Amino acid sequence: MTEMFKNLIAGEWAGGTNASRNINPSDTNDVVGEYAQGTVEQLNDAVAAAKAAFPAWSRSGPQERYEILKKASDEIFARKEELGRLLSREEGKTLAEGIGEAGRAGQVMAFFAGECLRLSGEVLPSVRPGVGVEITREPVGIVGMITPWNFPIAIPAWKIAPALAYGNCVVIKPADLVPGSAWALVDILHRAGLPKGVLNLVMGRGSVVGQALLQHKDVHAISFTGSVATGRKVAEACIASSPMKKVQLEMGGKNPLVVLDDADLKIAVECAVQGAFFSTGQRCTASSRLIVQAGIHDRFVEACIERLKGVVVDDALKAGTHIGPVVDQSQLDQDLKYIQIAKDEGGKLVWGGELLNRETPGFYLQPALFTETTNSMRISREEVFGPVANIIRVKDYDEALSVANDTEFGLSSGICTTSLKHATHFKRNAEAGMVMVNLATAGVDYHVPFGGRKGSSYGPREQGAYAKEFYTTVKTAYTLA
Q: Cα–Cα–Cα angle for 337, 456, 354, nearest 5°?
């Protein structure tokens, strides 16, 4: 019998009228579990439970919140191999990546446990004699969360942890494609001692559960990670709602990695291959545009091909696998569509791009690398979200910077160079929220802000102490002595 996983509403596990099957992309015959599909009525019940729990939780002491988040963190670390295997089984990341992401969720929980004890305010003198001023932060209220499939435990963790640390109540709708990791995280937090209604999980379709969450009058804020198109709809719904909702959006990327003539070739190739293709290229920070100076271009292309020849694409759980399958058939179709678009535009496919057969049926795609592309082609403008990258040849640093910034996105931007002058200039002038020097564009720390510019992000940053900008509201209080 396939196990059934239920929604968590007001501290109780509740089934739905329907369920979705969570399929292993490395073996489509393997069903991870069946997960309840929530209804609008259940979403409304979850919001009502959060509303009822908010007065007490928002005024709870920092020690209580600390102990719950720390207990959750401890369990995540103790079970990271098990949780990582679940993640890899449902999403298709390699086992090493899955375990690493589970560990990241534990680190996030531990960090925000500490933030509970670092809450602070200000006391200032007024410009008026005899008047005191206090500036404090209070929880924003009930926070709705809509999370994506590509980081199924880390992103729910870095949204839920700060929300709880700062005294908010939560209703989360994880990606319908990979609900298992989010379910496990919510279960851990629930058993760590959260009061009923503080954290609620309602799984299901975005068009049903997600839409109801956006429209609910008692939800005060929405944190969303997903596509640009959906993000725009989320923002519109939050502004149109009454009262208006605070909104935080993390969306797409078309991240550049600049490689200058003076770069260390080995470092540059590793940055490119790791950033563009690992995690099956399914990262919003992936370096899908490789902008390479003419003097190193041919050697870089040759070295990338040699590196890719040694990359093993196979079952995510199998030892020795470097890249797992694409997450599902829909994403695989999108990847193949863009490979054909790049060919039609005149790009030269120098490696990969072929469907692969393995021992088990799955969505296996050989990483695709294109040369002879320009920044005006669709392959350079639109996010593919798969193991597909293209190389753009440029004459000098100035052209490289111009091409790197010529995009509607602005999440992560990288450069490989041994020139302090160019590295310093690039850090200051790259139009991105995060800049990497001699590092892959994908790969960030959990204790510092995450986010971008332009079409990649909207609203306050995620992660680190900067998360309080979204999950709290500032109050200024005056007192006549």
A: 20
Which residue range is the domain that position 353 belongs to? 256-437
Residue 194: the pLDDT is 98
User: Angle at Cα 278 formed by Cα 430 and Cα 229, nearest 5°?
Assistant: 60
Q: Tell me the β-bridge partners of 223.
A: 145, 248
Q: Are 219 and 90 found together in one domain?
A: yes
**Per-residue model confidence (pLDDT) at position 2:** 78
Structure-token match 């120098």, residue found: 350
Average pLDDT over residues 430-442: 97
Give the number of domains in the chain: 2
pLDDT surpassing 70 at residue 222: yes
Catalytic residue IDs: 250, 284
Name 476's bridge partners: 135
Rounded Cα–Cα distance for residues 337 and 204 (Å): 28
Residue 435 near residue 413 (C-beta atoms within 8 A): yes
Let me know whether 320 and 425 are in one domain: yes
- Find out whether 56 and 139 touch, Cβ atoms under 8 Å: no
Q: Do 240 and 261 have their domain in common?
A: no
Cis omega before residue 243 (within 30°)?
yes
Q: How far is the C-alpha of 224 from the C-alpha of 247, rounded, in Å?
A: 8
**R_g of the chain, CA atoms, integer Å:** 23
Please tell me the distance from the alpha carbon of residue 339 to that of residue 105, in angstroms, as a whole number.
Answer: 34
Q: What is the CATH number of the domain that holds 74?
A: 3.40.605.10
Where do runs of H (alpha helix) occur along 388-479? 397-405, 420-429, 468-471
Quote the Cα angle for 86-90-91, to 5°.
115
- The neighbouring-strand residues paired with 424 are none
Residues 374 and 239 in one domain: no
Q: What average pLDDT does this structure show over 79-103?
A: 98
Quote the pLDDT of residue 481. Answer: 82
Q: Output the CA torsion sign for 329, 331, 333, 335.
A: negative
Is there a contact between 150 and 101 (Cβ–Cβ < 8 Å)? no
- H or E stretch at 32: strand 27-37
Q: Which residues contact 338 (CB under 8 A, 6 or more apart)?
A: 378, 379, 382, 384, 386, 388
Which CATH number is 286's domain given? 3.40.309.10
Q: What are phi and psi of 396, to 5 degrees?
A: -155, 180
